[in-house]
């Protein structure tokens, strides 16, 4: 079945461009468009998309609040949110991730990256590009813990290996890259990631990465 995509952006020309790119792919179907957050909520309820391609700064309701309502406890469907951004709006991207977005992508990303990001998010994974993640977190290094603060009690529920995996997730590594780094199988990595998410009550890898930095487990710029 085709992945159902809803386009949300207040610029009609951008929506048209995205539609042309996505409709060229057999496994993707653009089911609707919205010009602001309120329209996005209405369209999500009416059309039940799999993935919402979400702009951040829009009239009436911005993408952060729309994301929060789409992915929140009382949500109407299983829609995942993929945020589109420019680096002028970094602070809003961080808020969108906290609100429940499954990842983010630059508006000027190549067409093949946009298509792949939608596939990844639709499959239930997080779109956490390492280069973008590091740039975002380095920019906000002054607002994040230094790493010298007491470790949150919740981290003590993790095994040493799970803490290792969490640190690598925070660096934006994929399961395959983590497996290579730790000399274990991808299946083992998936198991560890699952345990981390369950123990820390996190939804996905994006929330895990944000948690790792906000808790001080990982410092911006650290390798």
Brief description of this entry?
The chain is of the alpha/beta class and 223 residues long. The chain is built from 10 helices and 5 strands; from the N terminus they run βαβαβαβαβαααααα. The protein folds into 2 domains: 136 residues, Response regulator (Rossmann fold, 3-Layer(aba) Sandwich), CATH 3.40.50.2300; 61 residues, Arc Repressor Mutant, subunit A (Orthogonal Bundle), CATH 1.10.10.10.
Question: What is the share of helical residues?
Answer: 40-55%
- CATH fold category name of the largest domain: Rossmann fold
Q: Report the end-to-end length measured between terminal Cα atoms.
A: 40 Å
Question: Kindly state the mean pLDDT as a whole number?
Answer: 82
> What series of H and E elements makes up the topology?
EHEHEHEHEHHHHHH
Radius of gyration: 17 Å
Across the major sheet, the strand order is 2-1-3-4-5
List low-confidence stretches. Answer: none
Integer count of domains? 2
Give the biggest beta sheet.
5 strands, parallel
Any idea what the CATH architecture of the largest domain is?
A: 3-Layer(aba) Sandwich
Shape descriptor: globular
CATH superfamily of the largest domain: Response regulator
**CATH hierarchy class name of the largest domain:** Alpha Beta
Sheet-strand content, in percent, reads 5-15%
**What structural class do you assign from the helix and strand content?**
alpha/beta
Number of strands: 5
Number of helices: 10
